[in-house]
Write a structure and sequence with these properties.
With 748 residues, the chain is of the alpha+beta class. The chain folds into five domains: 72 residues, no CATH class; 38 residues, no CATH class; 236 residues, Heat Shock Protein 90 (2-Layer Sandwich), CATH 3.30.565; 153 residues, no CATH class; 156 residues, Immunoglobulins (Immunoglobulin-like), CATH 2.60.40.10. It is built from 17 helices and 31 strands. Strands 4, 5, 6, 7, 8, 9, 10, 11, 12, 13 and 14 form an eleven-stranded mixed β-sheet that branches. It starts with a helix and ends with a strand.
Length: 748
């Protein structure tokens, strides 16, 4: 209120004014005294709540007086004999008070009182707000509120650019950001998350056009979208979350202990989420929805718990280009809601009005006690794809970016149950553990979970687990798990734009600690044989997670060392990346001791036993075979006069023998005296308990001279072979695909 308005309001009660300054609070106190009420305590709280809800000073005091009377004088029903009237028998919600005795029977007469109404200031505010809200929507329509430019405002196009230039595909970005916000709003350890690409019914499209998106926002292209014969929407919903609670207006003072989820998502671009070990920033996640909509428009329906119970909230929001008319310049931001008071402000539809509009437009409604949020992205840009192709891309993006949330913990709980739907029908979303590539990442995640929290499932013996430490000061930063695998006949499914590793897996999946949301796939060195791949997972420990969180850009798709201001945090992230490079390099190409010109040389190359070390083969559901690295000797350069064998290349390929795999190793035998070299192959099966002997009938072993690529599976059979010094030799072994092998070749 202006100073003039305050003095005009004070005039009728000036004799009751005791303040030194004329403020809304001191004027309200004068009105309370004039009515014979206290300017403190409950009277003050009730009047203040009513005034904040939009009442005048006089109306606020009248409301407080009526509420006080209701508190002091609850309605009473004196009943002569409660037992004689079952309908009025004592109810747990009623208070029973013994009064004077019945003159006829001498029995006490119970005084049955109705339950006391909740007349707390917060409840009065909510009730008054919803009542006023209902008056604004008694026509069944929302109002359009285009944002007039003010000092410091961001023009709509600028708001869209706040995500920066993320490398991710827009579909992947939508999946990541919306899922992240939903996860941070979880009520327990698991949530339901659904993305439904659907065509609106005629009734739903009419409701959007006539009841919700009113007005004339010409520059958005919204009217054109709503006029289409077929209007598609993306409906993103979560359940098992707390919904968008807190105040519904961002222009009024806020209790510092009160959540601000609603205004952060709806009004405040880029407002940080105050969730320790969480992953989200509400405003940026919402911006993605505007980017995907051809008309930059979304509709939000949320259900949350307030002091007076569960409350529905619904509001429309859009971001477009700035524009102007004859009177004003506009930022390009728009809202569709209600104006609940005589003051300027925008609020959502509340209560029954919100529920009615939500059920008229959304496909997923709320159960009686459900809380959560649903977002409707109007007229999404499908990029030329058919709806079926677009839905398939959403499913693939969800798999690559959210797969850790689909991996059950040791107690069998899946953190996120997700559905991708096309017109309400589920689109296939395979389990990550059954995916030909992601199954290796799942193994790594289980190993990291077990190391850090003990809630992971047992990982196979194929996973290498490393601790990542900083030295000054010495601090554990996180854990890195890695495993090798081979994938035959990898097919391109045509969705490479949402596949973060289309060229094959030689990456470490970076993720935050408790959030376990994929940040990005950090590319490392590829194995140099076709089909050979490896996967890794790095997750910080809880004590270092904040350093990595603060290094993330708005799109949460990287860890940027340069963005950190704190020297300790910058050092932790930098050291982690350095150690990851070292550990992955060592894993891909471990140093191998070999003899050359009579000396033992240590060099970074994959030797014979390492050539097939930790190989995991995926063959359409056949169990995974393994060839394991032999123990390497370490030491100084040693003169030798013994003959040597050096592996130059290797392959693991499909075998012509049914249900078998073929290992092909190319090597060169050398003798210092140019004598014939005798080679022997020691082959054993590998299990968790160590090596096991094999029946020779399980294997087909052949030796032949020649370079890699000339092997046909023929040649000299057996486990030993003689050849002249300097000869290139091929060792071919066909073995059952359901076993793992340890292969060592030695000179005898």
């Amino acid at each position: 209120m202006t100073e003039r308005e305050l003095f005009e309001a004070l005039a009728p009660v000036k004799s009751h004014f005791y303040g030194s300054k004329v403020t809304p609070g001191t004027v309200l106190a004068a009105y309370l005294r004039a009515a014979g009420m206290s300017a403190g305590g409950d009277d003050w709280q009730l009047a203040k709540a009513a005034f904040d809800a939009g009442m005048s000073f006089k109306e606020a005091v009248e409301e407080a007086s009526a509420a006080a009377k209701r508190r002091r004088n609850p309605v009473a029903f004196p009943i002569r004999d409660a037992a004689a009237n079952p309908k009025m028998s004592a109810d747990p919600g009623m208070s029973v008070k013994k009064v004077k005795s019945d003159e006829t029977t001498g029995s006490p007469i119970p005084d049955f009182r109705l339950p006391r109404a909740d007349t707390s200031p917060r409840t009065l505010l909510t009730a008054r707000r919803e009542a006023k809200n209902s008056l604004d929507t008694n026509t069944g329509k929302l109002k359009w509120f285009p944002k007039v430019c003010g000092p410091g405002d961001i023009i709509g196009d600028g708001a869209k650019k706040l995500l920066g230039q993320p490398k991710l595909d827009p579909i992947a970005l939508l999946v990541r950001e919306t899922a992240q916000n939903s996860w941070d709003a979880r009520l327990a350890d698991s949530i339901d998350f659904t993305i439904n690409l659907r065509k609106l019914s005629l009734a739903q499209q009419t409701a959007l056009r006539d009841r919700i998106f009113t007005g004339s926002p010409q520059v958005l292209g919204l009217n054109e979208s709503l006029a289409q014969q077929e209007l598609w929407v993306l409906e993103v919903s979560d359940r098992g979350t707390k919904g968008l609670g807190g105040p519904v207006r961002n222009d009024l003072p806020i209790d510092p202990l009160e959540p601000t989820d609603f205004i952060d998502l709806i009004f405040n671009i880029g407002a940080p989420r105050d969730v320790h070990l969480g992953g989200g920033t509400y405003g940026f996640g919402k911006t993605v929805g505007y980017l995907l909509s051809r008309c930059g428009t979304t509709l939000i329906w949320s259900r949350c718990r307030t002091a007076s119970g569960i409350e529905d909230r619904l509001i429309g929001s859009a971001i477009g280009g700035g524009y102007e008319d004859a009177r004003n310049r506009y930022t390009g931001r728009h809202w569709w809601g209600t104006s609940p008071t005589d003051h300027e402000g925008i609020e959502p539809a509340l209560g029954h009005a919100a529920k009615s509009l939500g059920e008229a437009t959304f496909s997923t409604n709320f159960e009686v006690e459900d809380t959560g949020t649903s977002i409707l992205i109007v007229d999404p840009d499908l990029g030329g794809d058919s709806p079926a192709e677009y839905a398939a891309k959403i499913a693939e993006a969800a798999l690559w970016n959210l797969w850790p949330k689909f991996v059950p913990t040791s107690d069998g709980l899946r953190p996120m149950t997700m559905q991708v739907q096309l017109n309400g029908e589920n689109v296939p979303l395979p389990a990550p553990s059954n995916h030909p590539v992601l199954s290796a990442y799942v193994e790594c995640l289980q190993a990291v979970r077990t190391a850090q929290t003990g809630n992971g499932l047992p990982a196979s013996g194929l996973v290498s687990l490393e601790e990542v430490w900083s030295q000054r000061p010495r601090k554990l930063l996180g854990h890195l798990a890695m495993t090798r695998f081979v994938l035959f006949d990898q097919k391109d499914d045509g969705s490479s734009e949402v596949n973060p590793i289309p060229g094959g897996s030689h990456h470490v999946c970076l993720m935050r600690h408790a959030a376990e949301l994929v940040v990005r796939y950090d590319e490392g060195w590829a194995l140099d044989q076709p089909g050979y791949q490896w996967a890794g997972v790095f997750r910080p420990v809880a004590g270092a997670d904040d350093s990595f969180a603060l290094s993330e850009p708005p799109a949460h798709d990287d860890w940027v060392i340069e963005s950190l201001k704190d020297r300790r945090q910058k050092s932790e992230v930098k050291v982690a990346f350095t150690r990851l490079r070292e550990l992955t390099r060592s894993f891909v190409a471990p140093s191998t001791d070999r003899y050359e010109h009579g000396e033992m040389i240590t060099q970074p190359t994959v030797g014979l036993a390492e050539a097939l070390g930790g190989i995991l083969v995926a063959l359409g559901g056949v169990p995974d075979p393994l060839t394991r690295a032999a123990t390497r000797s370490r030491g100084k350069r040693v003169k030798s006069i013994r003959p040597t064998v050096t592996v130059s290349d290797r392959q693991l390929v499909a075998s012509p023998v049914p249900a078998s795999v073929r290992a092909v190793l190319a090597m060169t035998a050398q003798d210092p005296n140019d004598k014939v070299v005798c080679l022997a192959a020691d082959v054993s099966a590998v299990s968790d308990g160590g090596d096991e002997s094999l029946d020779s009938s399980d294997l087909k072993v052949h030796w032949s001279p020649g370079p890699l690529g000339s092997a046909s599976g023929g040649g000299v059979p057996g486990f030993s072979y003689q050849c002249p010094s300097g000869t290139e030799v091929l060792l071919t072994i066909d073995f059952p695909a359901d076993i793992a092998l340890d292969i060592e070749v030695r000179v005898v």
